[in-house]
Description:
By secondary structure, the chain is mainly α. The protein has helices at 22-40, 45-59, 65-71, 82-94, 122-130, 137-145, 159-171.
Amino acid sequence: MARAAPSQWEGRLSYNLSMVPPRNQTIAGELRRIAAELENQQANPFRVRAYRQAAHLIEHLTEDAGELARRGELIKMKGIGKDLAQKIALFCETGRIDAGPSPPVEIPPELAPWLTLPGFNPSLVRHLSERLGIRTLDDLETLVRSRLLRTLPGMTAPDDEILEGIARLRAGLPQP
């Protein structure tokens, strides 16, 4: 297996997957989970990447990341900032990492009624509008009938329920 480039940590810390402390694997898994959650919330891509890079680094350390964080040495590693090092240290104490508050997802006011449709949330409505160009009920109905809506992550509502909801929105009726 190829080794990482020599650094100030050479000799003390090496990148050997067979010697990774179990806690590092747990921390890396938690960092990846947070990265995925942030990505689903369409958070800043640089923040998502920071969590993924930190996970990669942590899972390749042969020394316990919690111990490094406690000694203040984790922050000296490229890719781990003060905030992330504190979160890792907190995880080692509490078993949780708080990614911090996510900014609310803003959606166009004309699409706000879509939030009453089964399985729809602000992130999904924003994604449909901004990334897929779906801005009318006709467009949305076409997407649902094509069965492509169900391919989006987290979309579990049945197509027929969504189509019923669209019909109710068109008729000005409240959702059940």
